[in-house]
Design goal:
CATH superfamily of the largest domain: Butyryl-CoA Dehydrogenase, subunit A, domain 3
CATH class of the largest domain: Mainly Alpha
Helix content: 40-55%
Number of domains: 3
CATH topology of the largest domain: Butyryl-CoA Dehydrogenase, subunit A, domain 3
Radius of gyration: 21 Å
Bound molecules: flavin-adenine dinucleotide
Strand order of the largest sheet: 1-4-5-8
Number of strands: 10
Strand content: 15-25%
Order of helices and strands: HHHHHHHEEEEEEEEHEEHHHH
Distance between the termini: 36 Å
Largest sheet: 4 strands, mixed
Shape: globular
Number of helices: 12
Structural class: alpha+beta
Length: 384
């Protein structure tokens, strides 16, 4: 029972599955979950095999596939381990996507190939302490004097903040613009620039190998060469970016659900109570059936959104439906997986509680589920 992938897509899935199963060992997964460290060596290995640059064109050292192929990779990696899988899949977060669409040739050549090869790490900074779901107005400002921009402000919850080499920052460039989002622009910054500082956040619930941090920009100077696309278009570029990247968050969720489900199914077949495998109890077998239904539904929504993105045109409603549904399915399926394991499910060594802890983030980042539902309702309201 599965969506029919073509021969090349099937081969990609097989290759990444083999890679993840060999490299993301249960011992390593527990180790990285405890030490909250980015798995740099594994990231570089995955990058060498092309798994971190699926949707980057070959002319910039990528693989030249679409969002669907990227989703296959993300799903398989998160199926084997949700923490390492997410960390690796977010290593070159968003910068290639936005530069491919709006960067100039110089920016593309300078920034994309090192990210595609896994030599460098990216971070994309939109969220601020006071602006999360609503990024229509930024407190971070960029002020132009001559050929130079001076950036001041703070960003919160930034993936790869302390490991990244290249950053994009959403800033308010026109504080008087009405509506305010018409006065926002995107800037590229680089590690080591004077005035750009990162602090690591500790104590996350899940995805611990994926490093998260705060950024502070204090009289950070960049030039005109660091402006992405047109001044005043940053908010639009950001929303457009999310139409694609949110589908890969749905893929993370599907992978996590699938991984936990497989563990629960195997356990239910072997764990005996009252003289028989617990899968013989309808309370358990129907739970597993329901888990399978949810995963399959989530996967189809995710594939559909990816297919529309690649073949027709990005469809924000399909993307939001995929992300909202898949992330909820991941929360429910991983919760049920713990229940199937009983008390053992509550222990780290049985490798299902980690899936549940990691799944929660898929309902929060790149737009919470409530924000996705606002997008869906916005579309429904416009229907006759
Ligand atoms: C681990 C992690 C990694 C992250 N990585 C990044 C990153 O790399 N880059 C980046 O820019 N950001 C990142 N984020 C930030 C993330 O995108 C935000 O946390 C998220 O968008 C929600 O913003 P907030 O936390 O300020 O919550 P708030 O916006 O304050 O929301 C609080 C609650 O109110 C609800 N709510 C808010 N507005 C509405 C509304 N209009 N309608 C209905 N409900 C609403 C929300 O759904 C939520 O339930 C990350 C966050 C985490 C936890």
């Amino acid at each position: 029972m599965e969506f029919k992938l073509d021969e090349e897509q099937t081969a990609i899935r097989k290759a990444v599955r083999e890679f993840a199963e060999k490299e993301f060992t249960p011992e390593l997964a527990l180790e990285f979950d405890q030490k909250e460290e980015f798995p740099m060596a594994l990231y570089k290995k995955a990058a060498q095999l092309g798994f971190t640059s699926m949707r980057i064109p070959q002319e910039y050292d990528g693989q030249g596939y679409g969002v669907l192929e990227d989703c296959l990779v993300v799903e398989e990696m998160c199926r084997v381990d949700p923490g390492i899988g997410v960390a690796i899949s977010l290593g070159n977060l968003m910068i290639p996507d936005v530069l491919l669409k709006h960067g100039n040739e110089e920016q593309k050549k300078k920034y994309i190939p090192p990210l595609a090869r896994g030599d460098k790490i990216a971070a994309a900074a939109f969220t601020e302490p006071e602006h999360g779901s609503d990024i229509t107005c930024m407190n971070s400002t960029a002020v132009k004097t001559g050929n130079e921009w001076t950036i001041n402000g703070a960003k919160e919850f930034i993936t790869n903040a302390t490991t990244a080499d290249t950053f994009i920052l959403l800033c308010q460039t026109d504080p008087n613009a009405q509506p305010t989002y018409r006065g926002q622009s995107l800037f590229i910054a680089e590690k080591g620039m004077c005035g750009l500082d990162a602090t690591k956040l500790h104590g996350k619930m899940g995805i611990k190998p994926c490093v998260t941090g705060s950024l502070s920009m204090s009289d950070l100077k960049v030039t005109e060469a660091n402006v992405v696309g047109e001044v005043g278009r940053g908010f639009y570029y950001t929303l457009e970016l999310f139409d694609g990247t949110r589908i890969t968050v749905a893929a993370q969720a599907v992978g996590m659900a699938q991984g936990a489900f497989e563990k629960a199914l195997a356990y239910a077949k072997t764990r005996k109570q009252s003289g028989q495998p617990i899968i013989n109890f309808q309370g358990i077998s129907h739970k597993l059936a329901q888990m399978a239904i949810k995963i399959e539904s989530a996967r189809l929504l995710m594939y559909k959104a990816a297919w529309l993105y690649d073949k027709e045109k990005p469809n924000p409603v399909a993307t939001s439906m995929a992300k909202a549904y898949a992330s909820r399915a991941a929360m429910e399926v991983t919760d049920d997986a713990i229940q199937v394991f009983g008390g053992y499910g509550y222990l780290a060594d049985y490798h299902v509680e980690r899936f549940h802890r990691c799944a929660k983030i898929t309902e929060i980042y790149e737009g919470t589920t409530e924000v996705q539902k606002n997008t869906i309702v916005g579309y429904l309201m416009k229907q006759p």
